[in-house]
Amino acid sequence: MTDTVGRAAAVSVADIGRIHYYSFVARITHSIALLCAGLFLVASCACYSGSRPPKIGTSAPDFTVQDAHDKYTLSQFKGQIVVLNFWATWCAPCVEEVPSLVEMQRRMKSKGVTVLAVSVDVDDAKYLRFKTEHNVNLLTVRDPDQKSSGLYGTSKFPETYVIDRNGVMRRKFIGAVDWTEPEITDFLSKL
Length: 191
Prior knowledge:
Elements: H1 2-45, E1 64-66, E2 71-73, E3 81-87, H2 92-108, E4 113-119, H3 124-133, E5 139-142, H4 147-151, E6 159-163, E7 169-174, H5 182-189
Parallel strand pairs: 3-4, 4-5
Antiparallel strand pairs: 1-2, 3-6, 6-7
């Protein structure tokens, strides 16, 4: 009988050890999850230096951009629907998106839709060569200091804002978009 009692006591000690082990693992897992969530929140808040990016439904920040060839002010397009596109020649998704922007502009210009493409390219010669080689038939200007895209909190390219006739931002797109898709052209037509 003492042998049976000894085994029962040994089992109880082993069970207690397993319980402590599993609660330790659960605490560590929970702590890691909380740490990851905290890091995500910190990283999310740190994405934008300076002022926060504007929100959809608010007035688009006005800016003037001038390079050696062109000068545009966003407010000069009031009364039109503006598709404000931040892009670069070195950005593969931007290059992919350009033909659909050009085509959408061609189709929608008579409906008051204007594409304003703001390039963040530093190299003027490369920018001009790209415009010629890819037949970029859009209003485009180079902003190598990224002052205008900085007003919008842009950190990834391409990034595009749709601004209505009253200067209010209605949509934001991050990444390449096929601007000839019926869903998008219908949206633009209804603004």
